[in-house]
Amino acid sequence: MNIYIKTMTEDDDKEVVAQACMSVADIMKDCGFAAVELYMPRLAEATLALLHQESCCQQVESDGEDDGDIDHDEVLMDAVSDLLPAFAKVMRSYFDPIFAKLFDPLMKFAKSPHPPQDKTMVVATLAEVAQEMGAPISAYVDKIMPLALKELASSEATNRRNAAFCVGELCKNSGAAALKYYPDILQGLHRLFANSEQDLAVRDNAAGAIARMIMVQPQSIPLNQVLPVFIKALPLKEDHEESMAVYSCLCNLLLSSHPQ
Questions:
Q1: Which residue, among 181, 234, 130, 123, has the nearest Cα to 249 in the 3D structure?
Q2: Which parts of the sequence belong to the Stalled ribosome sensor GCN1-like HEAT repeats region domain (predicted)?
Q3: Using alpha carbons only, what angle is made at residue 72 by residues 67 and 78, rounded to the nearest 5 degrees?
Q4: CATH number of the domain at 135-260, please?
Q5: Which of 180, 82, 75 has the alpha carbon at shortest distance from 117?
Q6: Coil, helix or strand for 129?
Q7: Which pLDDT tens digit goes with each residue over 126-155?
């Protein structure tokens, strides 16, 4: 782990640093918090430096490379962004103090003039952090939800897909903090069930988001309007990772003998 941290902070090759980040994430996912507990302060600082684009590899500019806020390597930042869900997976709610320091630097990648792939990287990362960290994500809903809602209408299918997953996880884990956004979320998701949406994975993620919303706040959902659209989208076609949420929701509705 000492070698990985040294690589993250001191190596001048972005691809090597990216591999170090991916290795750290894999170790956390496979071995748990005990394997990295002693190194967490240094790992967090190394991750923060990379998000600020202040690490050694980010100071080495190739010929013709622009010196601006959007000057970064996509592979590197994808690897860096994978660290945050890995931290959340092993630390759960205890990740919150570290996440508080990483949040704003991460969100900068979702702002103009960053390209669409940066925005969806941020949204996907936040969705996975919400999934793993749980209730503490509620403190960030007012900053994350406007971005996710905007991305639901993106021209890029990957962005719409990640946004649907994100709004679902935010609703699932943030409780009452997300309630005021339910009308806008339902409106945004409804477009993803329309015939004009050709990407099957996007529809599956939209169904997963609806399922999560129904399970946590059924009284806040107009089920008589939502259920016909939701059920028409089933069975899932491509993203079967949404199966647990979708079919758990259906089972709960059946067992509750809901009139709809």
A1: 234
A2: 84-211
A3: 170
A4: 1.25.40
A5: 75
A6: helix
A7: 999 999 999 999 999 999 999 999 999 999
d(Cα 156, Cα 14) in Å, to the nearest integer? 27
Residue 52, SS3 per DSSP? coil
Cα–Cα distance list, 172 to 82, 131, 138, 168 (Å): 21, 8, 10, 6
Residue 181: C-alpha distances to residues 12, 42, 63, 186, 208 (Å):
43, 37, 46, 9, 17
Name the residue among 119, 219, 205, 147 with its Cα closest to residue 176.
219
Per-residue pLDDT at 63:
46
pLDDT at site 259: 61
Asked if 12 and 57 count as a contact pair (C-beta separation under 8 A), the reply is yes
> How far is the C-alpha of 30 from the C-alpha of 47, rounded, in Å?
19
**Residue 172 structure tokens:** 């699932």
Rounded Cα–Cα distance for residues 81 and 102 (Å): 10
Q: Is the dihedral of CA 205, 211, 213, 216 positive or negative?
A: negative
Inter-residue contact 87 to 28 (CB < 8 Å) = yes
User: How far apart, in whole angstroms, are the C-alpha atoms of residue 11 and residue 121?
Assistant: 24
Q: How far apart are CA 255 and CA 5, in angstroms?
A: 50
Instruction: Write out pLDDT tens, residues 192-231.
Output: 999 999 999 999 999 999 999 999 999 999 999 999 999 9
- On whether the pTM is more than 0.85, the answer is yes
Q: Encoding tokens for residue 192?
A: 């993803």
**37 CB-contact burial (10 Å; exposed 0-12 / middle 13-18 / buried 19+):** exposed
